[in-house]
Amino acid sequence: MLSMFITIIAGFFFVIGYIIALYKKNNSYLTSFSIGMAFSVLILLVCFDIIPEIKELLSHKSYLYGILSAILGFILFKVIDIFIPHHNHEEEKKHHTHEKHLYHIGVITSLALVIHNIIEGIGIYELANYNINSGMLMALGVGLHNLPFGLEITATLQEKNENKRFIRNNIILLFISTSVGALLGFIFGSINELFLGILMSFSVGMIFYLLIFELLEEIRETNNKNYSVLGILCGIIIMILTIVIGG
Fold first, then answer.
1. Sign of the dihedral defined by the CA atoms of residues 179, 20, 236, 131, in that order
2. What are the CA-CA distances from residue 96 to residues 153, 194, 216, 228, 236 (Å)?
3. Residues sharing a CB contact under 8 Å with residue 78, sequence separation 6 or more, in sequence order
4. Which domain holds residue 207?
5. Is 157 helix (H, G, I), strand (E, B) or coil?
6. What is the mean pLDDT of each run of 10 residues along the chain (247 residues)?
């Protein structure tokens, strides 16, 4: 039960980011800042957390499964991209409907993070079962990089004047996703390492798509580049803290 509670703590940081964004004015600046922060956090998360973990989970003979899973995740997100409301930067500039792209980013980020946080929930739960203190440190580290995503998703969805209930439901889904991972760990016990490695590789493919075709595009096109740069720097600081705490 204590391991489950520790896992829930990591998901609660999404809620903290949501609360900050919900009551912050100058939403345009906050959106650029939060997208920059999410961009740097995701890059560092992949490089210093997810990929090293995949290498530990998959043997040399299993790397092909990881590569194929990453490609599949990338392709799946491209397919999802087609079905989420279409956006085009040039058309948005002409018709002043840029909020469509921000809405798009918010929704697609939520989808990627739900899958990724189920996997992280499994990891936190299993570690907490083995060592409570280590589990707490991992939950805090994961929570620190969840906070900017709660901020980014809320800020981007608010740009399209989405109702608070829709935004709140997205945050609740993210909050629950980490607990779902813990629940899977509780039900099935220790999860097969090959299966976990494949799932994490799948999430890497989705994250790369999100980074290249959504977040980077928005950072390049925004009029608030100073805020984007500040967000990137804050994201780097957050990930350094995460690595220090987790290490």
1. negative
2. 21, 47, 20, 20, 32
3. 209
4. 2-246
5. helix
6. 85 91 77 92 89 87 90 90 62 53 81 88 85 83 88 82 77 92 84 86 91 88 90 92 75
The model carries a pTM of 0.82
The DSSP call for residue 98 is T
Residue in the structure block whose two tokens are 């992949």: 46
Q: Which structure tokens are listed for 138?
A: 């991992």
Amino acid at 35: I
Q: Which amino acid is at 232?
A: I
C-alpha dist (Å) from residue 189 to 83, 118, 126, 175, 184: 36, 15, 8, 22, 8
CA distance 51 to 69: 13
Residue at token pair 């909050």? 175
Q: Give the number of domains in the chain.
A: 1
Tokens 């703590």 locate to 9
At residue 189, the pLDDT reads 75
d(CA 97, CA 150): 23
230/226 Cα distance (integer angstroms)? 6
> What is the rounded distance in angstroms from the CA atom of residue 113 to the CA atom of residue 174?
7
Nearest to 211 by CA among 22, 7, 46, 30: 46
Rounded distance, CA 33 to CA 84, Å?
24
